[in-house]
Amino acid sequence: MAAFPALLLVHGFPLDGRMWRSQVEALSHMRRVLTPDLPGHGIDSSDPESSMDAMAESLARFLDREGIKQVDLGGFSMGGYVCFAFLRLFPGRVRSLALVDTRSGADTETGRAGRDAMMAAVRDRGAVAPAESMLPGMFTAEVDALVLAETGGWMVETSREALVADLAAMRDRVDSTPDLPGITVPTLVVVGDQDPITPVAESEAMAAAIPGARLVVVPGAAHLSPVQRPDAVSAALRQHLEAVATVTT
Ligand code: MLT
Predict the structure, then answer these.
(1) pLDDT digits (tens, 9 = 90+) for 24-35
(2) By the 8 A CB rule, do 55 and 79 touch?
(3) Disulfide engineering: 12 pairs with which of 30, 78, 207, 226, CB 3.0-4.6 Å?
(4) How far apart are CA 218 and CA 236, in angstroms?
(5) 155 lines ligand 1 (CB under 6 A)
(6) Residue 13 beta carbon below 6 angstroms from any ligand 1 atom
(7) Roughly how many angstroms between the first and final C-alpha of the chain, as a whole number?
(8) Cβ atoms < 10 Å from Cβ of 248
(9) What SS3 state is found at 178?
(10) pTM for the complete prediction?
(11) ∠ CA(38), CA(94), CA(63), 5° rounding?
């Protein structure tokens, strides 16, 4: 029996591959779903990378080790920033793209100063600092208490070194907006209807700039839509993947 084509899902900040657990379950009947931890995150004990390009290169090495040439690529938030870098570095390895609660733009000057302040807070207080700042934006008020607690647990498990590297990579990332009109693979853009971190308007603009991209706005979700509304996000991904021709793996 032929192996399923691979789907590579890249996690956000300050998280790890566990955030995609529901999507692994929902999509494994049609894809080999890979949700690696970026270097230094989750159970990956290698040194963290402090640029989007280096994170993308680490994913390419992971695919090489797995013997996979081409993937359906998806990323949540910071994972989306990594997807843009991966697409620039390895365009031939991307069969389709899913951008989930993310943005194409670079940080503003205020945003960059915020990254520096958060790095100082991480050095001072550890992973509690970004968890306290990020958790309220991840979910709407209706979130299940257990989901909230579990996500907070994932956040505080992330090492200081990985958090500082992520913050540097996000602060220094380039503007990917000029790339959008040149994206030729089938693209899905997903965003929670109440996402305060990467708002709907930014996803609308991003989808409008990518030829043929489809936008799905997920009702009842803030930033972490794949966790708060797993069924809706998985359904959007399933529909997107069903339409992708999978000649190569
Ligand atoms: C994320 O969810 O990965 C981060 O919020 C992205 C960011 O801070 O720009």
Answers:
(1) 999 999 999 999
(2) no
(3) 78
(4) 9
(5) no
(6) yes
(7) 14
(8) 12
(9) helix
(10) 0.97
(11) 45
d(CA 81, CA 13) in angstroms, rounded, equals 11
How does residue 3 score in pLDDT terms, banded at 50, 70 and 90?
Answer: confident
35-93 per-position pLDDT tens digit: 999 999 999 999 999 999 999 999 999 999 999 999 999 999 999 999 999 999 999 99
Question: With a 6 A CB cut-off, is 197 part of the ligand 1 pocket?
Answer: yes
In the block, residue with structure tokens 């690529």: 73
Query: Strand 187-192 vs strand 214-218: parallel, antiparallel, or unpaired?
Result: parallel
- Cβ contacts of 72 within 8 Å, gap of 6 or more: 5, 6, 7, 8, 31, 95, 96, 97, 98, 241, 244
Q: Is the peptide bond before 39 cis (omega within 30 degrees of 0)?
A: no
Q: Which two tokens stand for residue 241?
A: 């993947």
Q: Measured from the CB, is residue 78 less than 6 Å from ligand 1?
A: yes
Q: How much distance in Å is there from the Cα of 247 to the middle of ligand 1?
A: 33
